[in-house]
Amino acid sequence: MRIFRAVADCGGITAAENLLGMEKSNISRAIRQLEDRLGEVLCTRGPKGFELTDFGRSVHSAAIMLGDALEVARSEMMRARNAVTGIVRVGIPDNCLSNDECFVNDVLRAYMVQMPEVELHLHILSSELLREALEERRIHLAINSLRLVPQRYENEILFKEHFRLYVKAETPEGAPHLAQLRSRGFSIVLREDEFLSDDWSKSLDWLRNRKVYASGLEAVATLMDSGPFAGFLPTHYCRQLKINQIFQEVNGAADLRYEFPFYLTYERERPRAFAVQSLIRQFLLHPRRVK
């Protein structure tokens, strides 16, 4: 069951080799033996890639629940011996480290000193992949700007990210005024996952000389650097760009500024080992946390 869960989590036998420390032939044999015991096919493996069957998805969910229960039981037994062990999996988005308000690294540094026997896994994922990883219980905690349904998840605000409308300033005068952007040939570029309200987004329609969308901050910045585009970027992200990529906030665009909170998100009803509970507590008690 452990081997099957690892293969399902990794999305295939080849991807699970390093995680399990096993050869593909041995992994395949273990899955076939499990299928024989259960009397059903768990997954398909062919030219189209690895895919769980409906029965395989049910077994995967059961394997996750079983793994959580065993993890908590093992944690309690080790605590009885005054030891904290286990695996803690945390997911975060890219480009957090340069945000002055982000204190994730401070928490993780202190946590690893206090919990030297805990195995920490840190995953960099997009907002949508973080949501999927939480739903599938491949990670215990997510730090994300996407707030998940409160009926199932706790969403605790940790810090914020501040966005401004920028252009690449190529003249000594600096960035143009908002009212001049269209006449000077600028068009706005938005991220495909830009979390803006429909009304707010429609208010920018006059700036869409051409429809351009980007996936991720790096794509927005690349388009801004290569053409007459204005785009929303976090203030901390712009500060870390190279000197020849000078982006300045559009004059007269202060009303278009916005901010996003980043949440510590975890499943309410999921059993949590002491190592996971301790990390949650450290995040929530950090003095720089937004109240």
Descriptive overview:
The protein is an alpha/beta fold and 291 residues long. Among the domains are: 1-78, Arc Repressor Mutant, subunit A; 161-260, Periplasmic binding protein-like II (D-Maltodextrin-Binding Protein, domain 2). The chain has helices spanning 2-10, 13-20, 24-38, 54-79, 104-114, 127-135, 198-202, 217-226, 235-239, 274-284; strands at 43-46, 49-52, 86-92, 118-124, 141-144, 153-168, 187-191, 213-214, 229-234, 247-249, 258-267. Strands 3, 4, 5, 6, 7, 8, 9, 10 and 11 form a 9-stranded mixed sheet that branches. A two-stranded antiparallel sheet has the order 1-2. Strand 1 (43-46) and strand 2 form a beta hairpin. Helix 1 crosses helix 4 and helix 5 (104-114) packs across helix 10 (274-284). The mean pLDDT is 86.
Which CATH class of the domain at 161-260 is shown?
Answer: Alpha Beta
Distance between the termini: 42 Å
Order of helices and strands: HHHEEHEHEHEEEHEHEHEEH
List segments where confidence is low: pLDDT < 50 over at least 5 consecutive residues: none
Please count the helical segments: 10
User: Into which percent range does the helicity of residues fall?
Assistant: 25-40%
In CATH terms, the superfamily of the domain at 161-260 is Periplasmic binding protein-like II
Mean pLDDT: 86
CATH topology of the domain at 161-260: D-Maltodextrin-Binding Protein, domain 2
Annotation, overall tally of beta strands: 11
Structural class: alpha/beta
Rg over CA atoms, rounded to whole Å, is 23 Å
Shape: globular
Strand content: 15-25%
Largest sheet: 9 strands, mixed
CATH architecture of the domain at 161-260: 3-Layer(aba) Sandwich
